[in-house]
Amino acid sequence: MNDFTHPLLSWTPEAAVLDCDGTLVDSERHWHEARIATLGTLGLRPSPGFAARALGLHYADCGRLMAEEAGKPELTEELTAELLRRFTALAAADPVLMPGAGAFVRALAERMPLAVASNCPREVVETSLGRAGLLGHFRHVVVPDAEVRAKPEPDVYRKGAELLGVDPDRALAVEDTLTGVEAARAAGLRVLGVGPRPAEAERAHLWVPALDAPVLLAWVRAHVTGDQESRS
Q1: How many CA atoms lie within 13 A of 80 on its CB side?
Q2: What burial class does residue 152 get, using C-beta atoms within 10 Å of its C-beta: 0-12 exposed, 13-18 middle, 19+ buried?
């Protein structure tokens, strides 16, 4: 018997807006490699705790943080460009899906419209998801631009729900960072957190260790394919 008494699991969204980096695609290792290599151009290494401070940041904010912590704020633009160049090459060469991401996306896409809300440049998102065979399941890809602010602002999630034609409170957000969780909550979406559980995991409506978590897969079967056996 599967327990769907949790408020999020007893609810069926009308649409879903999903983060990409770290949620669908295992890209944090590429960001880590890119940060180390970029700082290496200055003969530096990341300071303790830098990876945690950079997690979920827009790459421009990460470049700014790198420059500030290196004591070279005048190199912000140069470091940002180098970080993006190195990450894009790594991500394009070796996109790896997070556990359960493929099955989860395909199952949701059978029942509801999907969008991606990412802080990464559009070409990175589309290349990663395209090479992983998932891009075609998403109706829209929303990334920061002149009118849409990056997470932790709510813009990418608000825009994703708008493009999918649903009120934010009828849409599910899927995120792996607290930065993204805060963005989705501020936009009015209900949030499924996924990945290693952070200290403030309660900011998400539900947190699971991975998209292939048994309770989550049971919920997807019940609400997406109408499998009545998973309700008994």
Answers
A1: 17
A2: buried
137, two tokens: 């399941």
Q: How far out from the chain centre does Cα 6 lie?
A: 23
Strand partners, 193: 175, 207
Q: What is the dihedral of CA 216, 221, 226, 229, to 10 degrees?
A: -100
The two structure tokens encoding residue 20: 């990409």
pLDDT in tens, 124-183: 899 889 988 999 999 999 999 999 999 999 999 999 999 999 999 999 999 999 999 999
Question: Full-prediction pTM beyond 0.70?
Answer: yes
Q: CB under 8 Å to 123, separation ≥6 — which residues?
A: 88
